[in-house]
Design goal:
- With 552 residues, the protein is α/β, with parallel strands linked by helices.
- The protein folds into four domains: 127 residues, Response regulator (Rossmann fold), CATH 3.40.50; 185 residues, 2-Layer Sandwich (Alpha-Beta Plaits), CATH 3.30.70; 104 residues; 91 residues, Homeodomain-like (Arc Repressor Mutant, subunit A), CATH 1.10.10.
- It contains 21 helices and ten strands.
- The strands form two sheets. A five-stranded parallel sheet has the order 2-1-3-4-5, sandwiched between helices. A five-stranded mixed sheet has the order 7-8-6-9-10, sandwiched between helices.
- Strand 1, helix 1 and strand 2 form a beta-alpha-beta unit.
- Helix 2 runs parallel beside helix 3.
- The longest helix is centred in the C-terminal third of the chain and has 40 residues.
- The protein is elongated.
- The two termini are 44 Å apart.
- InterPro entries: CheY-like_superfamily, Homeodomain-like_sf, HTH_AraC, HTH_AraC-typ_CS, Sig_transdc_resp-reg_receiver, Tscrpt_reg_AraC-type_HTH.
- Keywords: DNA-binding, Phosphoprotein, Transcription, Transcription regulation.
- This is Response regulator.
């Protein structure tokens, strides 16, 4: 949203300009008026102004002094200067100031003034345009690239639908990842087993970065690779064959076999380098086959869980894992605990976001949990994990007191490993459904409260400032967002509501009071009585006086 401030000490001219631009079809632009330079400064001190259309000659402070105040507050603001006389000195002074877009005579007419405003808007748009900022991106992007690359790869791990190959390639290219979207990828997991002397979070973060660099450095000799940290203990690597001139005579299958052999052989060197250079013990799990991008999430999960298979947990494992694609993957009991915990975390994330997809994760959690319930310690861990997750969630969402009353949260105190699993599933499913419904009701209530606050403020401040900025301050929302939100909720713009209330209040005063026309005009927010007449006639088909006479 853009804001234009019109400044002139002559009310007739100011109100005319204000009315003209209010009716103009400038999309998403708020018009504000000020009857003096001092009133203009009050606006400049309270909100960001994008364009100032100002008279030059005003008592107390002229336009050139006002420019200095504008530039001191909003350096990117565009200024259009208006004058009733062709004053060369002012014009010469003005055009030397980079913020001045144009110098206009009031006698040139509204079309010239509008054209100047359009030029100012174009300049603002160009300054915000990607092409204009290309040099900035070129200089800043390299520093942001690692984080952008990590974010995209993490996002790809969350996607469950098959990616459009062309769209995915555009995403990869945008953050300068070297991969091909139409080729599969080899997933690798590096897990830190022993931190040794690295105890602080800062040290561990730095070491994860170092491990990722070691893996990339050693693997990039014969492959395209990117390593990112998934959490405090685990680094993931993504590998594809490197395109080399010699590979033109190599078949596709042979190329992948060579790459897989190279990766398997090099991972041992990665472990050794971590020991020698970083004094760090790591385990590495790598898929025996390359997987499609859409299968990455499942493959990474299986690699992470494979560390629990067989003896040697905590030792430097080096595993080649046969990732299960279509057939269901049956983990052992330690894996089942990890899978159940993973799905419980997903439930919490979905419910916190108010996302209805929580039920899918809930079903996965019940399926992953019930397989190992015969083991009493597994059962105890599942039951306690579910209880802790729910308690933390209702506290986090501020629903603890309500939950105690409405879903009998205290029942959890009596759950133990002898409680039937079906009872537990029913309780937790109903609890999460209650949280979702509570959040929906809260959201609807909040929207209703915001609408009530907005309408109450407008009705009781018709004679005051009813700019979008001022109304947005009442409900602590971004003005541009408020405009879009209000139209989406009510089906009409907030300015339409203001106009309706002004007409409604005008009719009440015309019929229910002896106020004179200029008094009624001021009470409904019009400083110019003639503008009030035109506004009223356009809305009702008659002038205010004709309306009073007809109804009387």
């Amino acid at each position: 949203m853009q804001r234009m401030l019109i400044v002139d000490d002559e009310p007739v001219i100011l109100d005319g300009l204000y009315a003209f631009f209010q009716k103009a079809d400038f999309q998403d632009m708020e018009i504000i008026k000020a009857y003096s330079a001092f009133e203009a400064i009050e606006w400049l001190n309270s909100v960001k102004i994008d364009i100032v259309l100002s008279d030059i000659c005003m008592p107390g402070m002229d336009g050139m002094e006002l420019i200095e105040k504008i530039m001191d507050r909003w350096p990117r603001c565009k200024v259009l200067l208006l004058t009733g006389h062709n004053e060369f000195d002012y014009a010469h002074q003005a055009i030397r100031n980079p913020c001045v877009v144009d110098y206009l005579l009031k006698t040139e007419g509204m079309s010239h003034i509008r054209a100047a405003v359009e030029r100012a808007l174009t300049q603002i748009s160009e300054e915000n345009d990607f092409r204009y900022q290309h040099a900035w991106f070129r200089s800043k992007l390299p520093r942001a690239l690692p984080q952008l690359q990590r974010q995209l790869l993490l996002d790809l791990l969350k996607r469950t639908e098959r990616n459009d190959i062309a769209a995915l390639q555009e995403e990869l290219d945008a953050v300068q990842l070297p991969f091909m979207s139409n080729e599969p990828v080899i997933p690798v997991i590096i897990r830190v087993e022993e931190w040794n002397n690295y105890q602080s979070q800062a040290d561990r973060s730095l070491i994860r970065y170092a491990v990722a660099n070691v893996a990339e450095e050693l693997l990039q000799d014969k492959a395209k690779v990117k390593a990112i940290d998934l959490d405090y203990q685990v680094i993931a690597c993504f590998v594809q064959p490197k395109a080399e001139p010699s590979s033109f005579h190599t078949g596709q299958q042979e190329k992948w076999e060579q790459t897989l052999r190279f990766v398997y052989g090099t991972l041992e060197s990665v472990q050794q380098s971590c020991v020698d250079c970083l004094n760090l013990s790591v385990s590495i799990m790598v898929s025996e086959l390359a997987v499609e991008w859409v299968e990455l999430s499942q493959a990474i999960a299986q690699l992470r869980l494979s560390i629990h298979e067989g003896p040697g947990l905590g030792m430097e494992k080096l595993l080649r894992v046969k990732v299960q694609r279509d057939s269901p993957y049956t983990p052992n009991i330690l894996n089942q605990q990890s899978v159940a915990t993973l799905h419980l975390d997903q439930i919490r994330q979905h419910v916190t976001a108010g996302d209805r997809e929580w039920i899918e994760s809930f079903h996965k959690w019940t399926e992953a949990s019930k397989e190992g319930l015969q083991d009493p310690f597994f059962r105890m861990k599942i039951y306690s994990g579910a209880g802790n997750a729910l308690i933390e969630l209702v506290h986090e969402l501020g629903l603890y007191e309500s939950a105690m009353e409405e879903i009998a949260l205290s029942r959890m105190l009596y759950f133990d490993i002898h409680t039937p699993w079906s009872d537990l599933v029913v309780f937790y499913q109903s609890a999460y459904e209650w949280i979702i419904s509570k959040r929906s009701v809260t959201r609807i209530h909040d929207q209703s409260q915001i609408l009530i606050t907005i309408h109450h403020y407008i009705k009781h401040h018709l004679e005051d400032d009813l700019s979008l900025t001022r109304i947005a301050q009442e409900v602590s929302l971004n003005p541009s967002y408020l405009s879009r939100w209000y139209k989406r909720i009510t089906g009409k713009g907030i300015s339409d509501y203001i106009h309706d209330r002004r007409i409604e209040r005008s009719k009440e005063l015309l019929l229910g009071s002896a106020c004179k026309m200029h008094e009624i005009s001021a009470k409904v927010g019009f400083s110019d009585q003639h503008y009030f007449y035109r506004f009223f006639k356009k809305a009702t088909g008659c002038t205010p006086q004709e309306y009073r006479d007809q109804k009387s």
